[in-house]
Specification:
Blueprint lengths: L1 H9 L9 H19 L17 H23 L11
């Protein structure tokens, strides 16, 4: 619900560069997923296998966060933001 409310507030923002919402969603999702995966039980039978103390879901959330950070860097810092949906004049 929290993430949905953020996107509802931001959808009225105009001239949003391409990839903005994707990078924002991933940057919000990954830390939340990492935290909730750390709450999983480890002492039960059939518990998730941990590699170096982390679950596969935590490793994937680290990868998602890194990819989203690179995307946000590319959108906002490396390239001037542009919107491909605008008409060329």
């Amino acid at each position: 619900i929290f993430i949905s409310s953020i996107f509802l507030i931001l959808r009225n923002k105009k001239n949003v560069p391409n990839g903005y919402y994707v990078s924002l969603l991933c940057l919000i999702y990954a830390p939340v997923r990492f935290y909730f995966d750390s709450l999983r039980a480890t002492d039960l039978s059939g518990a998730d296998i941990r590699y170096l103390g982390l679950t596969p879901g935590q490793y994937s959330s680290i990868g998602i966060f890194i990819a989203a950070s690179l995307l946000a860097y590319r959108i906002f810092i490396k390239e001037k933001p542009k919107n491909l949906l605008q008409k060329n004049t």
